[in-house]
Amino acid sequence: MKWITARRRHPLAGYVVVILALALFGVGFAALAPTSDEARAQTLSAEVPDPEDVDVANGKAIFDQTCASCHNYDGSGMYAEDDEGDLVVTNGPDLREVGSAALDFQVSTGRMPSMDPDSQMPRKPMAISEQDLVDLIAYYDEEIRTDGRGADIPFDVPGDAPQAADFEDEASYEAALEEYEGEYDAYIEGADDVDMGMKLYLTNCAHCHSWSGGGGALTDGRWAPEIHDSTPREIYEAMVSGPGAMPMFSDGVITPEEKQELISYVKTLQAEPNAGGIFDLERVGQVAEGFIGWTVGLSLIIACAIWITAKQRAHD
Amino acid sequence: MTENNNNDHNEAGADADERVVGTPTDNTDVVSESSAHSESEHNGPYLASETHKHSEEKQRRGEKLASVWFIIAFIGGIGFLVSYFLFPPNAAGEPAIADPQIGQYSNMLLGGTLTLAMFGIGAGMTVWARNVMPHYEVGSPYDDLPSKEEEKSSFSEFFMKSADESGFTKRPLMRRTLILAMLPLGLAPVVLLRDTGPLPGDLMKKTRWTDGMRMYVEGTHRYLRAEDLEADPYGMISALPALDDEGYPHGISLTDQAKSVILLIKMPEDDWKAGMDEPVREDSDETHLNWTHQGIVAYSKICTHVGCPAALYERTTHRILCPCHQSTFDAADAAKVVFGPAHRPLPQLPIGVDDEGYLVARGDFNEPTGPTFWEYAKD
Amino acid sequence: MSKTTQAPKALRGVGNFIDDRFHLAKTGEKNLRKVFPNHWSFMLGEIALYSFIILLLSGVFLTLWFKPSMMEIVYDGSYERLQGVPMSEAFASTLHIDFDVRGGFLMRQIHHWAALIFVASLVVHMLRVFFTGAFRKPREINWLIGVAIFTLAMVEGLFGYSLPDDLPSGMGVRILQGVMLALPLVGSYVSMFLFGGEFPGEDIITRLYMLHVLLIPAILLGLIVAHFMILWHQKHTQYPGQGRTDKKVVGTPMFPAFAVKAGGFFFFTFAVIAGLSAFVQINPIHLFGPFTPTSITSGLQPDWYMGFMEGSLRIFPNTLDFTIPIGAGYPVMTAVLVPGLVVPGLIFGALGAWPFIEQWITGDKRAHNVADRPRNAPVRTGLGVAGIVFYGVLWLAGSNDILSETFSIDLYLTTYIFRVLAIAGPVVGYVVTKRICLGLQRRDRETLEHGYESGVIQQLPSGEFIEVHKENSAETTHVLESKPVITSTALEEPETDDKGVENPAARKGMGRLRRALAHWYTKDNVSFDGVEAHSGHHLHHGAEHQDH
Question: What is the ipTM of this complex?
Answer without folding.
Answer: 0.91
